[in-house]
């Protein structure tokens, strides 16, 4: 068990190191946005200093190509983003900001 | 003579005046008569004018009076008419508004339903096997009964043998407790296996087949139970979690090849002990996530010598998606490594099954690492839609040493994206089971997400 835990901790550190190293190739704008420590925005289409569009891009692109906002109706986006919130474990604030952006972008 | 002539001259006209003439001239008499008639007509005309003027005044007075009356009456009338019209309008609107709302409600209701999912068709040519076409249709049913309650269920429908195979992949009811926590119950993708949860649909999975290390007995794919999950901010970063309790895996004890392996495909439990597992993830920057998953269980059949055996499955994963100006495009890095351990036991202790006694602490491991690149920042459409993928995946051999050997594969793929969720894939896989002939394979696949 101790050997197993050591292996898992080591693997976690390797992954964390790799992820921060690879971020050197990243878009510096995205990194800058992540470092923004502003509080939750008053409007519903932004959260933690990130706009609904940025949240949509950051979260949805993690797994798959993003679909244009015009692809679904407002009611369908409600359902889809609800479903994706559960799958990607995003917060309720992020969910609402993303939905707001998708509806306004139509 | 002159006087006579004068007299005749004077008299002549008078005489001629008295007598009708026939040379175009009127007589005096006629003149006087005409003059008299004219004067009379003139008098009469003036009288008429005078009379007419009086009548006009009278009429004007009367018309003014009428106008005044009308002015007094019209506003009231208009107001009354406007009021009536307005009331009618309001009545119409009042009647119409709910009708429109009712119409919309009757079209959509308060329940929101979406039929989504994906479909794929594939050709596989693998060394040592018959080449084959395959296809599947995977409808995803999403019902949002309220903004907090969602049902999602998926079927997998594919041709099999001479018929059709229909499999319930997942069916879960979820409830959003608050912004950071959701509850779920039913049949769901195991949170400890991030590939199954997020990358399984074939329009998301970048290669035609799936990594063997996360699909063949090291990690659970589907769990039947209950879960709690969510995400929360940590300063500028975010973390997410999912914990569940479910029916546990079964331990293979009767077959020499598979002794000590965990069977995660039997969705009914074989004892009163339930599996407990979960995953925690951390997102240090947007587009990067690292995670750790686990599941602990007692997989042995109740009432047997294996009933108290403990099994622990663990997994680490990494997901990176970044745009790069340097590389003129987007790259993805996905990796997952899993390992399992079943406590020490003696399989077939009396040898009655023909392979024992076999003392064994069953350990297995497997995983994959994949990198994909798509030149999204190039100006040429065709090149922007291309994507190159390379994957390494591995699965250790069966713990008993008597079953399948370890297997390592390298796959090179090239995709063309027809739309954000429609892709044509081509891939070649170098597949080398340890100590056995290669099972290299060529794939062509098309997948559509809807």
Task: Summarize the topology.
The complex is a heterodimer of chains A (106) and B (450).
Chain A: H1 2-22, H2 28-34, E1 46-47, E2 50-51, H3 52-60, H4 74-88, H5 92-105
Antiparallel strand pairs in A: 1-2
Helix pairs in contact in A: 3-5, 4-5
Chain B: H1 2-18, H2 28-108, E1 112-126, E2 132-146, E3 149-160, E4 163-178, E5 181-189, H3 194-198, E6 222-234, E7 237-246, E8 250-251, E9 262-263, E10 275-283, E11 288-297, E12 311-324, E13 329-347, E14 358-374, H4 381-384, E15 386-395, E16 407-419, E17 422-433, E18 441-449
Antiparallel strand pairs in B: 1-2, 1-18, 2-3, 3-4, 4-5, 5-6, 6-7, 7-10, 8-9, 10-11, 11-12, 12-13, 13-14, 14-15, 15-16, 16-17, 17-18
Descriptive key words:
heterodimer; A: 106 residues; mainly alpha; two-stranded antiparallel sheet; 5 helices; disordered N terminus; B: 450 residues; alpha+beta; 16-stranded antiparallel beta barrel; two-stranded antiparallel ribbon; 4 helices; 18 strands; 24% helix
Order the strands across the largest sheet of chain B as they lie in space. 1-2-3-4-5-6-7-10-11-12-13-14-15-16-17-18
Number of helices of chain A: 5
Helix tally of chain B equals: 4
- Biggest beta-sheet profile of chain B: 16 strands, antiparallel, barrel
**Alpha-beta classification of chain B:** alpha+beta
| Beta-strand percentage range of chain A | under 5%
If you compute it from the alpha carbons, what radius of gyration of chain B comes out, rounded to the nearest whole angstrom? 51 Å
Low-confidence stretches of chain A: 1-13, 19-43
Multimeric organization = heterodimer
Share of helix among residues of chain B?
10-25%
Largest sheet of chain A: 2 strands, antiparallel
Low-confidence stretches of chain B: 1-20
Query: What letter string, H or E per element, gives the SSE order of chain A?
Result: HHEEHHH
Give the overall shape of chain B, derived from the CA principal axes. elongated
Classification by helices and strands of chain A:
mainly alpha
Q: Kindly, what is the distance between the CA atoms of the first and last residues of chain A, rounded to a whole number of angstroms?
A: 54 Å
**Looking at the structure, what is the overall shape of chain A?**
globular
Q: What is the helix fraction of residues of chain A, given as a range?
A: 55-70%
Number of strands of chain A: 2
